[in-house]
Design the sequence.
């Protein structure tokens, strides 16, 4: 009986821990009820990154949360398009100033002796804002991603304020607060995961799946199904083609449908592996084609 009580106690504690971890990221509720399709609990510094990626204009809305802070702390999150750590980082900085108001601005880092002075970044940031609530600073921003890629080195930090001037960040975990984030695929890796090679491998796998998805659907809906329809339309008028045209028609239609199902399944898998991305028009066209093809197969 005592052992059972101990087991139940540990199960209860574990459930609380899981619930707390979940609340920290995917189940977190923002003040304005803003929702983000993707989120990541960062490995150090009690930080969390939420985002929505918009493929149409190659931009991203981010919310970076940094907890366990006081009013005398600053927080920053940055992208580094050059792939480095501190030098070249394009920062979003936030803190509560001596007037009691939140300061949120951009700051490019060009030297190890930086004081995170305000300045323009190497890419466009149409919006940046911040809030301080309890022990948490949250930075909100809209970023026009540079280049044609969606994968970047990102760095996050905190430190102590001297008046309204950010001071140097501590050592320890602050030296490990770097990783890779791919806003399109949702792949995120910390500094200890050899990110460049691993991310390249995962992105390559994703690109191969995109290629397979495209080929399967072209072969199905673009080749086999139209050929099956043309066989029924043009061959059945010839007596010599009876009943061969019908068998060829059914073979093309069924094989096209089977290949199409495989293409549809790879599309579903790509969607589930790409949090924060919704190709609405592409998805609706795919659902319509698949539904009509299924009805045709049932009617046959």
Sequence:
């Amino acid at each position: 009986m005592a052992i059972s009580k101990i087991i139940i106690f540990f199960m209860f504690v574990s459930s609380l821990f899981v619930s707390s971890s979940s609340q920290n990221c995917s189940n977190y509720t923002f003040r304005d009820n803003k929702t983000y399709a993707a989120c990541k609990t960062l490995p150090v510094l009690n930080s969390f990154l939420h985002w929505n990626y918009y493929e149409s204009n190659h931009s991203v809305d981010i919310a970076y949360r940094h907890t366990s802070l006081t009013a005398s702390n600053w927080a920053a999150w940055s992208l580094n398009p050059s792939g480095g750590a501190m030098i070249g980082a394009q920062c979003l900085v936030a803190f509560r100033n001596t007037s009691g108001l939140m300061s949120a601005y951009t700051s490019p880092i060009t030297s190890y002796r930086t004081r995170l002075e305000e300045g323009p970044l190497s890419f466009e940031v149409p919006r940046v804002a911040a809030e301080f609530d309890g022990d948490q600073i949250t930075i909100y921003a809209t970023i026009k991603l540079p280049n044609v890629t969606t994968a970047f080195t990102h760095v996050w930090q905190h430190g102590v304020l001297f008046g309204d001037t950010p001071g140097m960040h501590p050592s320890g975990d602050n030296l490990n607060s770097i990783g890779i984030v791919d806003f399109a695929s949702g792949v995120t890796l910390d500094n200890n995961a050899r990110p460049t090679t691993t991310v390249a491998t995962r992105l390559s796998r994703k690109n191969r799946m995109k290629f397979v998805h495209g080929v399967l659907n072209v072969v199905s809906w673009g080749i086999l199904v139209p050929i099956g329809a043309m066989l029924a339309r043009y061959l059945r008028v010839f007596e010599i083609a009876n009943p061969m045209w019908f068998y060829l028609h059914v073979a093309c239609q069924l094989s096209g449908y089977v290949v199409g199902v495989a293409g549809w399944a790879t599309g579903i898998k790509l969607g589930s592996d790409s949090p924060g991305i919704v190709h609405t028009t592409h998805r609706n066209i795919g659902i319509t084609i698949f539904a009509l093809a299924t009805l045709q197969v049932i009617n046959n």
